[in-house]
Amino acid sequence: MDDIDVRILDALRADGRASITSVAEAAHVSRANAYSRVSRLVSDGVITGFTAKVDPRRSGRASSAYVTLRVEQADWHDLRERLQRIPEVEHFALVGGDFDVILLVRARDNEDLRRVVLEELTAIPSVRDTKTSLVFEDHDLR
What we know:
Pfam families: AsnC_trans_reg, HTH_AsnC-type. This protein is α+β, with helices and mostly antiparallel strands. Helix content is 38%, strand content 22%.
């Protein structure tokens, strides 16, 4: 990765639907160079996909929370699979510190959020406890 690759990634983070021409202009390279670099970044696994940015409130997910879990770490692979099957879990990460896993949960409303936390997450055998922090306002920086 060099400075040109970084500029290409920045351009695609700002607009995943940007044309190769606009990516090339942002990176200050030719269209052919930008095309070959984007192709290489995809094949090397640096770019793992192209997605749409979605406003959670406007898409029907008005209630958000960060939920931390303390878990039986030996069961991480099973837990990971179970979390992937919960549609309201938008992101999760295995972390170090006072808790083991952090989740971003986006639900229709507080009742739906309550169901996810108190019924679905606590029903997973490896989950020892949860703590929920409601999101009042969030900002996507990219």
